Amino acid sequence: MSTMEQILELARWAPSGDNMQTWRFEIAAPDHLVVHAYDTRDHCVYDLDGHPSQIAFGTLLETIAIAASAHGLRADIARRPAGRETHPEFDVRFVADPAIKPSPLLQAIEERRVQRRPMKTTPLSAEHKRLLEETVGPGYTLTWLESRDQKWQAAKLMYNNARLRLTMPEAFETHRSIIDWENRVESPDKVPANALGVDAMTLHLMKWAMVSWRRMATMNTLMGTWAPRLQMDLAPGMACAAHFVLKAKRAPASIDDYVAAGRALQRFWLTMTTLGLYMQPEMTPLIFSKYARENTRFTANARLEQAARDLQRQTEALIFDGQGHPVYMGRMGYGPRPTSRSVRRPVAELLRR
């Protein structure tokens, strides 16, 4: 296996929204990789401005740089200015550099995973918080929500956001398309059903309802949405060490700014993995707050638009403290290790020929 192939074998494990792996690789030369990325704004209500996808591009590029360190290579990365906003392209050139040593995060690349089920409530140690704050770099800060009251407020915020996303027709197709009902333990290109964090009965009802929006709307009317929200949002929101918010010190304004945030996020997530910590993304409060703040039309239902404005106030009261600009949010804790996870497509399927 060539050096480039070894780098890509690790790079493919970078996280992406709902495991969609929105990039393809072109090997232009033995030392030159082109990453052809694309966002999902044309079909995903959670990505209407492309920023969540751009953060994911950053996690990929950081993973490539870390993987290259195993070979004493520096990854020089530049976005092609002529690329479309929805389809940015990145040149990655690998340069031998004696100053480059194998990254301590290498072993965590493949081990990193999402834990949607309850975690231990053991508080984060001061040393672990220091290491995590250090790894995001000087352009970012971390806000910790770790007291019982803060965790309760964050759990309620997620519970309320879940009602919005579960009753929104525009989100239904995204949810239906990303759950893998066949590969319930490990899915190469979706989220395996067993990783959703709900019990067997709720999972069975979800599978039945996701056949069509008509079924989903009927179930929402007859049974409400409290069961999945309780299991996927409220209970896990308390069963963790803390919630966190990654904030940029300077307001992100360009693709490159969001890519840089993604690189910081991946360092944070991999460092967390080396410390025995797991994480679940909690991006919907940030996404819908931004839509409400910028008057982005995300649904044809006026009632849901009003709900988003209410959630915006709740989100800002909890995490907007004037100290930086939120770019990512999640909950984290020590163990247990997830037994079901998203895996990845093989490199051969990600190569653009």
Largest beta-sheet details: 4 strands, antiparallel
Strand content: 15-25%
Distance between the termini: 18 Å
Mean pLDDT: 96
Helix % is 40-55%
Q: Give me the Rg, rounded.
A: 20 Å
Oligomer: single chain
- Molecular shape: globular
Strands, count: 12
- Structural class assignment: alpha+beta
The H-and-E topology, N to C, reads as HEEHEEHHEHHEEEHHHEHEHHEEH
For the biggest β-sheet, the strand order reads 1-2-4-3
What is the tally of helical segments? Answer: 13
Stretches with pLDDT under 50, minimum 5 residues = none
Protein architecture, described:
By secondary structure, this protein is of the alpha+beta class. The protein has helices at residues 3-11, 51-69, 108-111, 126-135, 148-166, 169-178, 200-209, 213-223, 226-238, 255-274, 284-294, 302-319, 347-350, and strands at residues 23-29, 32-37, 73-79, 89-96, 140-145, 179-180, 186-187, 191-192, 242-248, 277-281, 325-334, 341-342. Strands 1-2-4-3 form a four-stranded antiparallel β-sheet, covered by helices on one side. Strands 5-9-11-10 form a four-stranded antiparallel β-sheet. Helix 1 crosses helix 2 (51-69) and helix 11 packs across helix 12 (302-319). It starts with a helix and ends with a helix.
Quick overview:
45% of the residues lie in helices and 18% in strands. The chain is of the alpha+beta class.
